[in-house]
Amino acid sequence: MIDVLEKVVWILTGLVLVLAGGWYLVLGAPSPVPAIAMQGRTTSKQELTEKLDEPQRRKLDEVLKESPREGETAKQYERQREEFQTINRAAFERMTNLTDAMHEAKTVSSKVIENKDGTNSLEVFDIPEGSVMGTIGFQDQDIIDAIGDENIDFSSRMAARELFYAKRDQLSSDGFIKIDIRRRNKPMKIIVNLEDMVP
């Protein structure tokens, strides 16, 4: 009887280790950077542009004029409030680690909102203090419409994961990324820049 029980325990332990190894292979290890090391601050467009090279500045000027929302004119979009956020390397490492991102997604409450044009957006609540989302500048009840001018299918985890990797690479190459949100029903743009990423 004991031999059978021991075999069952060893088999279950082996299965747990295999599943854990599979999870590690698919998602990767959590970032070794502690959450307490993350820092973010509000900055100005002038300070941001001083860090960028000429092609990056042109790209920034372009994206600040391109609306991801259907039916919105360039003039309407240009008049929207802009908020510039700078994050440090620790916040970037945690933000771009898929394991950490998925863990944080579980700690933030959210709901998918269907838009009239057929796209969907994500409203976020209960953003924990010291989280990546808080460091980037999100507030409770912000509605995320687009990241880097791309509307995200928030109802599809696979689509969100693919976009996650694409936007991580874009932040690395462009030196910034734009996030279109609605705050208290007013559209605005958050431009996130990596503090120590200078050309």
Write the SSE topology:
Elements: H1 2-27, E1 40-43, H2 45-51, H3 54-63, H4 74-78, E2 81-87, H5 89-95, H6 98-107, E3 109-114, E4 120-125, H7 132-136, E5 143-147, E6 150-151, H8 157-174, E7 176-183, E8 186-194
Brief account:
The protein is an alpha+beta fold and 199 residues long. It has helices at 2-27, 45-51, 54-63, 74-78, 89-95, 98-107, 132-136, 157-174; strands at 40-43, 81-87, 109-114, 120-125, 143-147, 150-151, 176-183, 186-194.
Structure explained in plain terms:
With 199 residues, this protein is an alpha+beta fold. The chain has a single domain (31-194), classed as PDZ domain (Pdz3 Domain, Roll), CATH 2.30.42. Helices cover 44% and strands 24% of the residues. The protein is built from 8 helices and 8 strands. Strands 1, 2, 3, 4, 5, 6, 7 and 8 form an 8-stranded mixed β-sheet that branches. It is globular, with a radius of gyration of 20 Å. The chain starts with a helix and ends in a 5-residue tail after the last strand. Residues 1-28 have low confidence and may be disordered.
List keywords for this structure.
44% helix, 24% strand, eight-stranded mixed sheet, 199 residues, Pdz3 Domain, alpha+beta
Ranges with pLDDT <50 over ≥5 residues? Answer: 1-28
The CATH superfamily name is: PDZ domain
Distance between the termini: 68 Å
CATH topology call: Pdz3 Domain
The class by helix and strand makeup works out as: alpha+beta
H/E element sequence: HEHHHEHHEEHEEHEE
Q: How would a crystallographer describe the biggest sheet? A: 8 strands, mixed
Tally of alpha and pi helices: 8
Helix content range: 40-55%
- Tally of structural domains: 1
User: Tally of extended strands?
Assistant: 8
Strand content: 15-25%
Q: What's the shape?
A: globular
Q: Which radius of gyration do the C-alpha atoms yield?
A: 20 Å
